[in-house]
Amino acid sequence: MTVHTRYRYELALCIPTHPPIPASPTRRPDLRLLAAGCSDSNSSSHSNPPPPPPHHHHHRPTFSSSSSSSQPPSTPTSSEPLAMPEEDITKYLRQSHARVFEHNRAWVTEQTKKDPEFFVKLSAGQKPEYLWIGCSDSRIPAEQITGLQPGEAFIHRNIANLVNNIDLNVMSVIQYAVRHLEVKHIIVCGHYGCGGVKAAMTPQDLGILNPWLRNIRDVYRQHSEELDAIPDESARYNRLVELNVIEQCRNVIKSAAVQQSYSKNKYPIVHGWVFGLDDGLLKDLNIGFEDMLAEIQKIYNLEDS
Ligand SMILES: [Zn+2]
């Protein structure tokens, strides 16, 4: 089998922002909002899904325009451009933006009703037990699938949950989470059907994504013997998702912050998990943290002497 046949995937399916395997009943981020948030565990974007705001019976924005000629356009379900008149696009964008603020106000009301002290506690500080390093994929809301509440998880997400030692972002997150927040667990969570991993299996120039995806291509190279022995393409893809998680766990363990904290405190423990889009279940890959740490320290020992 040549490299090209082994890696052949249709490019259109492989761009990470358009994951190839939609979660059951298509659940696209119909707002098309790209949220850039803080990792702060108190500013969860996913814990307790906000109830629909009053007067909104559908997730889709409703149109209040008095113009009866324009029907409310339906929520887009594909990566096609919005198929509606220009005037409606403007309304759609305004309303899909406003909807988030309506949900936010409803969430504040709900939280305050459940616990009048909720925001007093939230503003007092954070002491999360978990650092979550996951994929940016919109279908894997870390807190929602784990039942964690605001304040319980420090979150970092990027395409294909990579931990690259020259990525200042993820390395700062790890250092801060370990040394200052003193998290007890670090979870690297990948997912089957990961568009980033699939794109890395595509032998094509993907521009700015090349250096990022090369980390996954390197994982393939390191494990090519095992992967090439898997005849079924989707089984091989699933295994690469798992191996990528395991390699990113190794990268977390290579950091000085983790090694030094573990030798002093016996935490954090690093875990590798994979989320299944088709059943919603988390799978623990049982990476064997202590053995992995011992193996890594033969070469990458950064413990204080
Ligand atoms: Zn992904």
Automatic annotation (TrEMBL):
UniProt enzyme class? lyase
Q: Name one GO cellular component term.
A: cytoplasm
Recorded superkingdom: Eukaryota
**Example of a GO biological process term:** carbon utilization
Output the Gene Ontology terms for molecular function.
carbonate dehydratase activity; zinc ion binding
Q: Which reaction does it catalyse?
A: hydrogencarbonate + H(+) = CO2 + H2O
Region (Disordered) residue ranges read 33-84
Which cofactors must be present for this protein to function? Zn(2+)
One protein family per Pfam: Pro_CA
UniProt EC number: 4.2.1.1
Lyase recorded as keyword? yes
Alphabetical list of PROSITE patterns matching this protein: PROK_CO2_ANHYDRASE_1, PROK_CO2_ANHYDRASE_2
Specify whether Lyase is a keyword of the entry.
Answer: yes
**InterPro entries cross-referenced by the UniProt entry:** Carbonic_anhydrase, Carbonic_anhydrase_CS, Carbonic_anhydrase_sf
Compositionally biased spans, kind Low complexity: 62-81
Q: Which UniProt keywords apply?
A: Lyase, Metal-binding, Zinc
The record ties this protein, via SMART domains, to: Pro_CA
Annotated residues that bind Zn(2+) are located at: 135, 137, 191, 194
Q: How is the cofactor bound?
A: Binds 1 zinc ion per subunit.
Similarity comment: family membership: Belongs to the beta-class carbonic anhydrase family.
The task this protein performs is described as: Reversible hydration of carbon dioxide.
Listed name of the protein: Carbonic anhydrase
Biological classification of the source: Eukaryota, Fungi, Dikarya, Ascomycota, Pezizomycotina
